[in-house]
Write a structure and sequence with these properties.
Structural class: mainly alpha
Strand order of the largest sheet: 1-2
CATH superfamily of the largest domain: GntR ligand-binding domain-like
CATH topology of the largest domain: Four Helix Bundle (Hemerythrin (Met), subunit A)
Helix content: over 70%
Shape: elongated
Largest sheet: 2 strands, antiparallel
CATH class of the largest domain: Mainly Alpha
Order of helices and strands: HHHEEHHHHHH
Length: about 230
């Protein structure tokens, strides 16, 4: 971690502890701080130009969110994500996606369809530029539009609760150039099925979409483990 620089955006309206927390949180979610990496308060404080107190507070909050774990005799580390973590989270996500797609298929209006088309176009432009950050944002937005179209507040809330956990996996997935092309095509197919009000097809496509992500990410983790052994 000694060669890494963490960009901390100063907002005069936010307490310093919140800025430090958001900076470290973003670094973990985007993969700047890798799973299993040690979080040493002194070094992080030096890099961010702050005292150890806000760093310590941020680490405690990150632990509560499940993004950091405390390891005996080693201290704080970025929480790893295992193959089981991915399967567990994406199994739930797949079921929610299928349900949301079925409901949205019956309830989406023209405005929602236009939003999906715009998001798809923006995703494709970002993919051409290799802009991972925008790709991730547009991938998230694509699914948000579908969930919002269900008009089911509880379903939207459950989707939001899984959001951050899925985000770390999504980054690992979309960094694969082949995966980004697959996502584009699958989004097009889902949009087409929604347009045609084909409830069964859109449910099936949504399930496959999430299952493919799970399989690809697990393959990625296995290859990483093999390369380090």
């Amino acid at each position: 971690m000694k060669d890494k620089k963490l960009d901390m955006k100063i907002d005069e309206y936010q307490p310093l502890r919140d800025i430090v927390f958001q900076t470290l949180r973003k670094a973990i979610i985007t993969g700047e701080l890798l799973p299993g990496e040690r979080l040493m308060e002194t070094k992080l404080a030096e890099k961010l130009g702050v005292s150890r107190t806000p760093v310590r507070e941020a680490i405690r909050k990150l632990e509560l969110e499940g993004l950091v774990i405390m390891v005996p005799r080693k201290g704080a580390q970025v929480a790893p994500f295992t193959q089981k973590d991915i399967k567990d989270v994406l199994e739930v996500r797949g079921a929610l996606e299928a349900l949301a797609a079925r409901l949205a298929c019956e309830r989406m209006d023209e405005r929602a369809f236009l939003r999906l088309e715009l998001v798809n176009t923006e995703y494709e432009y970002a993919a051409q530029e290799g802009d991972i950050e925008t790709m991730i944002a547009k991938d998230v937005e694509f699914h948000e539009v579908i969930f919002e179209a269900t008009e089911n507040d509880k379903l939207v809330q459950m989707f939001g609760n899984l959001g951050e956990q899925v985000h770390r996996f999504r980054i690992a997935y979309l960094k694969n150039s082949e995966a980004s092309v697959v996502v584009q095509e699958e989004h097009r197919q889902i949009l087409k099925a929604l347009r045609e009000r084909d409830v069964e097809l859109v449910s099936e496509l949504s399930t496959v979409h999430i299952q493919r992500q799970s399989d690809t990410i697990i393959e990625f983790i296995q290859s990483q483990e093999e390369s380090t052994n």
